[in-house]
Write a structure and sequence with these properties.
Number of strands: 11
Number of domains: 2
Strand order of the largest sheet: 3-2-1-4-5-6-9
Strand content: 15-25%
Shape: globular
């Protein structure tokens, strides 16, 4: 039995589906079981990972735990201690490729992620562990650019030469399955990226090629972007950290590790493949 936190999230959903397809019993923790929409056969349990006492009974009979840093937050040490007490043997923790950076330089912290603390708790838990240090999720581009692409052929944003190696959520989920079901990755902090470093300009050009549209990226001043993003309701500290990350990395290639291919025995899914799978979300 695998216990999932963050089961209804970007990685949790494909991971849950893959586990079910492997014939693995899955128990998913969610705050709203009626709205979970998870595959048939998944045992959906109401609970709050940030309050581990609500998960005590759900840990019964569990061999492996998928730990989501936003779901559990600073309660990770308490939850992991309870898991060990209940007989859980291993934990796969979702983390981020920038987890070693200064905390103020990690934008996702300002949206609630506690990657550093949750990863450290897993390593210190006494359980077998694997850390999945992910690069930027490909799906995040829908939030950043989807509206502009649906509205026209020009995507405006900062730092045209900033590069990402976006990872397909299915690749990350597939590596998580290996982490939970095999011993080959135990005790490793895995830097997981997409297969190619692409600038903002190249990312948008690829979307256009896949969709058959003349899309282009138009760079605009960071301060304009800052005002727009904050005006859309995003947290000011998140926006500032994100723009600072772009400024630091502009003109430099993103890290590409090749770990996904080594672990899965096949090439990592490309950005173009991800776009083709999500063409409808871009308005095609």
């Amino acid at each position: 039995m695998i216990l999932m936190t963050g089961a209804t999230g970007t990685i949790g959903r494909p991971l849950t589906s893959l586990l079910v397809s492997e014939g693995v019993k899955v128990r998913a923790i969610t705050r709203n079981p009626q709205a979970a929409g998870l595959p048939d056969g998944v045992e959906v349990v109401e609970g709050e990972p940030a309050r581990p006492e609500t998960l005590a009974s759900a840990l019964q009979g569990v061999a492996g735990l998928f730990l989501h840093p936003r779901a559990v937050g600073l309660a990770a040490p308490e939850l992991l201690a309870l898991a060990k007490e209940r007989g859980v043997q291993r934990v796969a923790v979702l983390s981020a490729i920038n987890v070693e950076d200064d905390l103020d330089n990690q934008p996702s912290r300002f949206n609630g992620d506690r990657n550093k603390e949750v990863e450290a708790a897993a390593v210190a838990s006494g359980l077998d562990w694997v850390s999945l240090r992910s690069s930027a999720f490909a799906v995040n581009t829908l939030l950043a650019w989807g509206g502009q692409i649906r509205a026209g052929d020009v995507v405006r944003g900062p730092y045209a030469t900033f590069s990402e190696a976006p990872i397909h959520e299915r690749d990350l989920a597939a590596v998580a399955v290996r982490a939970l079901l095999s011993d080959s990755l135990l005790g490793r902090k895995l830097d997981l990226t997409g297969p190619q470093s692409l600038t903002h300009t190249e990312l948008i050009a690829t979307v256009g090629e896949v969709l058959g549209r003349p899309l282009r990226f138009q760079e605009i001043p960071p301060e304009v972007v800052r005002q727009v993003m904050i005006g859309q309701g995003l947290a000011e500290r998140f926006v500032e950290a994100l723009l600072a990350r772009y400024a630091r990395g502009a003109g430099q290639p993103a890290l590409v590790t090749g770990e996904v291919e080594k672990i899965l025995g096949r090439p990592a899914l490309s950005w173009a493949e991800w776009v083709a799978e999500h063409a409808d979300a871009f308005g095609n």
